[in-house]
Each structure stands twice: as structure tokens, then as C-alpha cells.
Amino acid sequence: MPFTTFGLSSAALDGIKAMGYVEPTPIQLRAIPLIMAGQDVIGSAQTGTGKTAAFALPILTQLGQHSHATRVLILEPTRELAAQVETAFRDFARFTDLRVAVLYGGVGYGHQMDALRNGVDIIVATPGRLLDHSGRGTCKLDQVKFLVLDEADRMLDMGFLPDVRRIVERCPRQRHTSLFSATIPPQIETLIKWAMKNPQTVEIGARRTPAETVKHVIYAVAEDQKSDLLRALLDQVSYNSVLIFCRTKHRADRIAGLLKKNNHAVAVLHSNRTQREREQALRGFRDGRFEVLVATDIAARGLDIADVSHVINYDVPQHPEDYIHRIGRTGRAEAKGDAFTLMVAEDSPHVAAIERFISQKIPRLKLENFNYKYTALFEEGKPGQPQGYERKVKAVRLSGGYYFGPARRRKR
Ligand code: AMP
Question: Is the shortest distance between the CB of 52 and ligand 1 below 6 Å?
Fold first, then answer.
């Protein structure tokens, strides 16, 4: 079914053509007609499915011409996502006279004030900075007709829900609301009941199923060998671009420093970096200047980074759905990708939760020619393994790089 069947404006259709889109994606097929018909929509689809166009195209069509009042508000959890969605809106709207502004923290107010003073039709914003502007009276929400709450579950995780509620309260009741969320925890359910009118749910595929083109592997390793294993993996694997996820900003910085010392071209993405550094990191990774990007979940969620050949979970994600989001960066658009996860003994419950979530057992592999220390994980699946076993035998270094049996036998 081509885009022309949706009743989109000719300017929006020209925008799609200029982007090179030929066929709508499944979420576009289902969400565009609903939003065109004025329905509130709850969208649940993996990232990289084309959800931005699914809401942007019908909204742009219904906006028509530029007017000085802000009629569209899109809330995003992170600055990067806000910038990405703003760019998408600009691309789709390039044959219109509609104006788009992006508002997020970590940068000065000057440019944002200038844009708002000149009158914008569409605001893409993170909640905190938007409330700042609203409090200062530099942006008005009383004419908003289309409200989009994107990545709602992540806004919840980041503690933005109270801000989101305050923002929704400042928008007129008479409006169209869309909400996109990978999962619908109870707090989001409450928000839906409170902020949306008779919403229709659009769920694309099984959201728990990672792309079939991704090969998953777990490498069990002792904690103090993790960085050695990572370096060995990067040496042995042939890759174009690698995205490495760490649990904390500090760990991301440490790993990036380590890989730089090993002559990898590395960029870092986390929320302690300045906006300028974050933009440089993303741009450099996208255009191939950096072969490795080390990131935290919050910074990397939902970003459209094409052609990542490998995702490496240096740390196992704490929430199963983050596993899907992380590996969603590879194997996109039918391309093949690899997702490696480094696992230490304490990660077992999280890995089990991930495997339950994706209904798949992830194969365990050992890296060839790596001088493994023993970890209790090598005993996984064997019955009768006592608790705390790993700590006692962890320091035993095995000859030949492979574990051949339980510690008892090795002592002989
Ligand atoms: P999103 O899920 O909105 O972040 O989109 C993921 C990627 O898919 C972006 O690079 C979009 O430009 C691209 N995309 C979205 N819709 C289509 C389409 N109908 N055909 C081809 N590419 C698309």
C-alpha cells in the first residue's frame, strides 16, 4: 500500500519522497489512518520501526500552514532523541512553511528564546526545559492541538512523570494525544487513563522479539577479566562499528579510555558530557570517524544509528526491555548484526529475566585463545553447585585458556 492512500498533504508526500521512503512500515500503516481520523493512539513498536514518521506525517498534514501559535508538542526523554525527532520533523516538513523548535537542557536559552519569539508551530522538548520555558512565559501551550508523549516508559524511568503531568495540565483538554511506549507499566496505564480519550492501541509484532537478523551470544567471564575479554573480542571480531553499553557513566568513561589506549577510534555518549560533546560523538560515529561508541542506556535509547555491526553489552542490562532496545541498534532494516553480552556470576538473575522476556535461550560461547580464569558460570546448568563457590576459586588461573572441569579435579 503506497503512502498516497492515507490522504496525506502533497507537501508531506513530497517530504516522504525526498527522504526516499517507498512503502510505509507496519506501524505507519496502522497509526497514520488513526491519527488522520483524529483518534488518540497508543503505539507500541520496537525502535527503528519508523514510529516518528507514523505520528509526524499525519500531524503535519493536519497542521497545514504556519501560524504563530504552537500547535504541536512532542515530549522526549533525552536531548538526543529530541534532536533526532526535530530533524525528522524538519525533513518531513521541508516543503511546508511550518517552523520547528527543539528545547532541551544543558545548553543556553538564547537560541531557544529566539526561535520561540519568532513563532513556532511544532516544539520538540525534554520535560524539564519545557517547564522552564513555560514558567518564564517564553512558550505557551494553550493552543496545543497535538500532543505526543514519546518513549513514555523511559520518561517514567527517568523520573519525568510528574513534569509530564504538569505539562499535560497546561495543554488544552481539546487535543489529540499519542503515546509511544515499549512497555505499559501501571504508572503509564494511569497516565493513559488520565491524559487520553478512548485511545486505540497499535502494537506492531511481538515487541519482545528481537530482530531475527541478530545473532546473540553470551560470554561468561570473571568480573576482573571483563575489560581484557572486551579487548580480546574487539581484536578477534571483524566489525564496522561497535556500540558498547555500560551501566554507569563512570564505567563508560573508563572503558572508552582503555580502548583509546588500544588505538581504537572511540567516542563516549552519556549524560555528563556536554551537549556539544554528545553531538560530536554521535556525528563522528554516524559518519565513521569513530569505530566504537561507548554509551549508557539513557543516552542511547531510541537513537537512529544505522549500520551498527555489533552491539556489546559490557554490562548486562538491569531491565529486560533494555536488552531489546540496546540490540535494536544492530540488525536494522534486514542487515545482519551481532549482539554480545559479557556476563559475570551476579548477572545470572538478570540474564534469566532477559531470556524469559525474549523467550530465547542465548547461547554461551567461550572466546578462543583467551586465558580464562574460572567463574562459577562455567558450571551453569550443572546440578548441585554450592552458593558462593565462585569467590573461593575465582583466582585460579587455568592453563590453556579453557576450563576443563570442577576445581576439585584440578587440585589433583
Ligand atoms: P524511527 O523508528 O522513527 O526512529 O525510524 C527509524 C529509521 O527508519 C529512520 O532512519 C527513518 O528515516 C527510517 N524510516 C522510517 N520510515 C521509513 C519508511 N517508510 N521507509 C524507509 N525508511 C523509513
Answer: yes
Contact 78 CB / ligand 1 (< 6 Å): no
pLDDT classification of 384: cutoffs 50, 70, 90: very low
Is 194 found in the same domain as 234? no
Q: pLDDT tens digit string along 268-287? A: 998 788 888 888 998 999 88
353 contacts: CB under 8 Å, gap ≥ 6: 320
pTM exceeds cut of 0.70: no
* Cβ 304 under 6 angstroms from ligand 1: yes
The pLDDT of residue 409 is 26
From ligand 1's centre to the CA of 302, what distance in Å? 12
For residue 167, being part of any structural domain is answered with yes
Residue 49 CB–ligand 1 contact under 6 Å: yes
Residue 380 belongs to what domain range? 214-403
Q: Does residue 409 lie within any of the structural domains? A: no
- SS3 call for 317: coil
Mean residue pLDDT across the chain:
85
Q: 39 lies in a domain?
A: yes
Residue 76's CATH number:
3.40.50.300
Contacts 24+ apart (CB under 8 A), 12-15: 12/57, 12/60, 12/61, 12/92, 12/93, 12/95, 12/96, 14/95, 15/57, 15/60, 15/91, 15/92, 15/93, 15/94, 15/95, 15/96
pLDDT tens for 113-149 read 999 999 999 999 999 999 999 999 999 999 999 999 9
Which of 160, 183, 203 is at the close of a domain?
Answer: 203
Q: Which three cell numbers stand for residue 279?
A: 553531538
CA of 88, closest atom in ligand 1? 12
Grid cell digits, residue 389 = 563457590
138 and 264 in a single domain? The answer is no
Q: Tens digit of pLDDT for each residue in 56-112?
A: 999 999 999 999 899 999 999 999 899 999 999 999 999 999 999 999 998 999 999
Using a 6 Å cutoff on CB, does residue 150 contact ligand 1?
Answer: no
- Tell me how far the alpha carbon of residue 50 lies from the centroid of ligand 1, in angstroms: 4
Ligand 1 atom at minimal distance to the Cα of residue 304: 4
Please check whether residues 282 and 173 belong to one and the same domain: no
